[in-house]
Structure formats: C-alpha cells, structure tokens
Amino acid sequence: MLFEDNDFDINMAFFIPDVNFNREVDILSPMEGFLRGNMFKDEYEPYKNLTYFKLKPSNEKEMELYKIMALSFAINDLNLYLDLHPDNKEVLDLFKKYVMEEEELCRKYVKKYGPLEVCEVTGNKFNWVDSPWPWDGFGGSMYV
Questions:
Q1: How far is the first Cα of the chain from the last one, in angstroms, to the nearest whole number?
Q2: Which residues, in sequence order, are bridge partners of residue 137?
Q3: pTM above 0.85, yes or no
Q4: How far apart are CA 80 and CA 46, in angstroms?
C-alpha cells in the first residue's frame, strides 16, 4: 500500500497556520480599495516604497464608469473574503450594500450612455455597435 509502514504524518503534510479568523477587519472604501488593489487596510504593502496614483476622470461618463469599476472590485474582493469567513455578518452586509449600489449605478449608466455588456440590449435594435467603445478616442490602455 502507498502509506503503509512509513513515517508520513498527515498533520505535517497539510500545515495550517495559526490564524485568528475572528479578528475585526478594517475595510476601505470601494474607491480606495480599487486604487490599492485590496479592500483591507492592513493587507496593503507597497512595493519598494512605490504607491498607487489616483485616476483623474476627465468627464462625467468616465467618473460614473470609474465608480462602477471600484464597486465591482470591492464586490469581488469581499466575495473572496466571505469564501473564507462566511459567518462575518458585517462584511456580508457590506457586500450586499455594494451589490445593490453597483446594480443601480450600472442601470443608470446603461440608460444614459449605453451598454456596459453585450447582453444589455435596449430599444428595438442591437445597439452595442452604435456605442463607442470605452477606449475609443483615448488611446493606450487607460482602463486596463
């Protein structure tokens, strides 16, 4: 047999560090978390003293898209946290709040500026191709 007569220790094979999963978490705003790439204040460690820079939207449409991107990031990051801490009601409530805010912002954005996703067809014709792409006229990789 594979594990017969050997010194295999199952406890050492799957080392689980001693982590306090019940500690309070200091969660950043969606915009700050988006800029840092992490929603948790004590998890951000700048690389070689470099720091993030704030994006400067040039018009209302870009600002609305920026808010949607920040909320979408916050939802995804909190989702990852909740995968490991499903009983954290505070984070779950914040997650639900951000989902509702993001859905409302997306609805308003689509109504005012056109679809964000190909499945958001409005009116009597397929209007995805009529809308300018987010990167049209800007050049480079502004949103990537």
A1: 52
A2: none
A3: no
A4: 21
3-state secondary structure of 143: coil
| Residue at token pair 């949607």 | 68
Please say whether the dihedral angle defined by the alpha carbons of residues 144, 75, 91 and 99, taken in this order, is positive or negative. Answer: positive
pLDDT tens figures, 83-130: 999 999 999 999 999 999 999 999 999 888 878 887 766 666 666 555
8 A C-beta contact, residue 70 and residue 30 = yes
Coil, strand, or helix at residue 136?
coil
CA distance linking residue 126 with residue 19, whole number of Å: 52
Give the helix/strand (H/E) hosting 12. helix 10-13
Rounded to an integer, what distance in angstroms lies between the CA atom of residue 52 and that of residue 125? 42
Asked if 73 and 33 count as a contact pair (C-beta separation under 8 A), the reply is yes
> How far is 18 from 10, CA to CA, in rounded Å?
17
Residue 79 to residue 33: CA distance in whole angstroms: 14
In angstroms, the CA 78 to CA 93 distance is 10
SS (H, E, C) 26-51: CECCHHHHHHHCCCEHHHCCCHHHCC
